[in-house]
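User: Hey, my collaborator sent me this sequence without any context and asked if I could get a structure. I don't really work with proteins. Can you help?
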Amino acid sequence: MGWLAPRIGVVTLYRVGLLLTGVILVVYGLLVYVENHTAFLASSMTLRAVEGVGTAAVLTGVRSIIINQFPQRMNSAMSLVEGMYGAGSCLGPALGGAMYSIGGYGAPFYALGTLSVANAAISLLLMPAVTEHQADSPENDGQGPNYRDSLLFALSNADSWLILAASCSVAVNWNGIDNSLAPYALDTLNMELPELSLFFMGSFAGFGLSSLLWGRLSDSIDNTFVLEAGCLALVALGILLIPPSPLLGLLPSRLLLGVGMTLREVFQMGVNLPLLPLLVRLLVSRGMPDDIRSHALLTSLCGFTFAAGNALGPMLGGLVTDFWGFPVLATWLSGITALLSVMMAARALVYHLSRRTAPAHCKAYVTLA
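Assistant: No problem. I've predicted the 3D structure and written it out in structure-token form, which is a compact way to encode the shape of the chain:
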């Protein structure tokens, strides 16, 4: 999608992604009429994969549009989108269950599919024109070498790898923990599913409500690496408290579960939200063109690492939980997160020292965050 966006336009990419996702959801609702089990599973897998393509188009398009339209307030603008994601995560299960109860299997799919297609149509009227900050030169016509060179430039930067590692870690923590948490909580704490659902809804509410705070804070703070280090440290603590980890010597309890889930959700938003804007500002300050092509490339790069974490989290989390148990999984993930926190703190110190030692007339060019 990062390669495709500048060729067809990020707004077009956004609309095509919405349209594709909406059509796929409606077709998903029709699978109830497929009676053969093998055909049902094969169709579901195919539709899920195509829906993923549409989702990648939507996310790449919308984040590139935000970077283009709000270059000085990227974090604040993205916090609104992430807040809506949190609201959807809270309301989705309840609304989907209600629609399923009233209208049957297809009702949630038909409703979401129709909303997605309607959103694509409404965007024809409301979406602003996306302009580039820097015009493309004649010899840089958007063909393969430019994309490849830009990608190599991004990947040759050590800070890029640190930011992408944090993005992947966020996804692993979310999915690795959540997919193994329910069996553990139901068995160890003797919880019922409705009670556990309330814990998830409460933590997601913290995720959504805190997004606006993190957006404003990350736009106002100069050294974003300090914010990243602090949030990663508190995420690591939250993950340790959820089981809790054997290192703490505490007995499992609903209180520790709730506190740990809330800490993880709230401060993981503080980690995730500034990563893409930070990557854009870093690489632009080092010579990458500040245009829609670069924005789309970096957006897709962050999206790729986050998706990789989405895939690795459940797989690795399930394996570790099966062999050593859920508390050990939480301990490992917390350790990795704490290591990233130390690395971000070291990078924050380097940035601070570079600002102090830079000549006064050069400090404007040392802005990294």
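In plain terms: The radius of gyration is 22 Å. You can pass these tokens on to your collaborator as they are.
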